[in-house]
Amino acid sequence: MHLRSSSFDDSSGARPDKPVTPHPVTPHPVTPHPVTPDPDQPHPVASTARRSRKRLLLGGALAAVVAAGAAVAVVVTGPAQSGKAEGFTRYVATGEPFTLPAGRTAMSPANDPNSGLTSFIVKDVLDRQAQALLRHDLTGWLATVDPAKPKVVAYYRDLYAAMQALDVTGFAYENTGSIDITSKNDLRWQSDYGITYCFSRPECAGGGRAGPLGSPSITQHLSLRKADGGWLIEGVGTSKKPGRYEPTPWQNGGMVFARGKRVTVGATRGHDKRIKELAAIADKAAAVTDRYAAKLGSSPNRYRIYLATDKEWSAWFTSGEEEGYRGQAFSINDIQSEVVLKASELGGAADARAVIQHELGHVVAFDGTGVGQVPVTMFYDWLSEGFAEYVSYDGRPATSSDRAPAVRTLVKSRKPYRSLDVGRPSVTSKLPTINQFYGWGAFAVDCMAQKYGKPAMLGFIKDMYRTRSMTLDRAAQKNYGVPFDELSDSCVSWIAKKF
Q: Which residue ranges does the record annotate as region Disordered (predicted)?
């Protein structure tokens, strides 16, 4: 996580060329091609998993739900079917209809002998759609979508383009929710479906299983109807039980991407002016972080960065971070990490480079470690942030950092830190206090590198974060030859002498 420093200054004024989007059919474009937005396509507005949600479906008209100051834009179908009896028809597996007697309602899935078979058939349709995505077949992907629902078609066309831009390598549906069957003259099917996904890697851990030990996942509420040619998706919306890190930046559609050599940068349409510039900047940062990755035994296949508006910043991956922060890295499962940057807090090229390099420092420390669906700053934050700062400055002395004045104030205060191992300040803390914490971590890691050697420091980081099999004391004994308390006392004194 990167915090705005007290000395933050935007002095660059550099602006990118016109942003580009990937062509929806080309799976791995070297140069993204512009795509004209579909006027029927719903405009995505970020939502948060912490706030109450209404189950709304893409279909007939656009509806906006506003809760706690954040808007959720989704598209709804026509009037909901009541499921009441007269003339009510449901198809059985053979496609032959039967009519419920007047005064009867449809059976619930629990006592409906046909619902299990229907669930299997619908799941097969969704599996075929997922397979089409993975073989880069747009026609096959859209074949399962109701052509009479242009907004739904536009959403899935947009999702396809996003998945290809993000180098999708895994995508699978799982029926995870309750089933609501409502029909009138034909069969309709509604249920929650988990989608496990994987980007860039040949395969995801856990064989596609959702959860901390498997693939990252999202949850959607899907509505399908039975047509002459089979089942078609006619609506898609949010689940009443979203995952911990929803929504993802791409989940609501409307994303535009720029592709660099090692990094893909995305933003929502209308907020994408800098993505081409940032992709080039991020490639330079990646060249540095790749060196650290090699020394730590980390191997991020590709870095992904999302540029967020202020509303999106607090919504994507259910961040909810307070003011002042401008970069976050999320370990969304055991093997993948995503980075989000707050557009309004990014300065010019040099400032953006420092923020990106900091966040990618988190990625290389945690990528593939089995941390599992937690922000990557949950384990000894002072060390995590200190190492990310060290990577950001690429080994330059901590005294040259823009947080050095904050550390000077801390050291000279009546209550200086007495140990390296200090807790993160609360989110209500003032910016100077948080800057002192970040700076303290940077000086701590710099001390380890300068007093004991950079290889020893990297070994310590590797043992603490990548193997996660050691306490601070054991890792210090192994890499520095001293107990952690002795290391801490030595570095606290070393830091004080710098001022």
A: 1-51
Domain end: 205, 238, 271, which one?
238
Q: What does residue 261 show for φ and ψ, rounded to 5 degrees?
A: -70, -40
Task: List the CATH number of the domain containing 308.
Answer: 1.10.390.10
Residue 4: pLDDT band by 50, 70, 90 thresholds? low
Is 307 contained in some domain? Answer: yes
Task: Decide: pTM greater than 0.85.
Answer: no
Instruction: Identify the three-state secondary structure at position 168.
Output: strand
350-360 mean pLDDT? 97
- Segment 305-331 shows an average pLDDT of 85
Q: Are residues 338 and 435 in the same domain?
A: yes
Give domain status of residue 8, yes or no.
yes
Upstream peptide bond of 405 is cis (omega within 30 degrees of 0) = no
Q: Which domain holds residue 392?
A: 2-16+255-497
* 8 A C-beta contact, residue 428 and residue 475: no
Domain boundary among the residues 210, 238, 266 is at 238
Spell out the SS3 assignment of 270-323: CCCCCHHHHHHHHHHHHHHHHHHHHHHCCCCCCEEEEEECHHHHHHHHHCCCCC
Cβ–Cβ under 8 Å, residues 156 and 24: no
Number of domains in the chain: 2
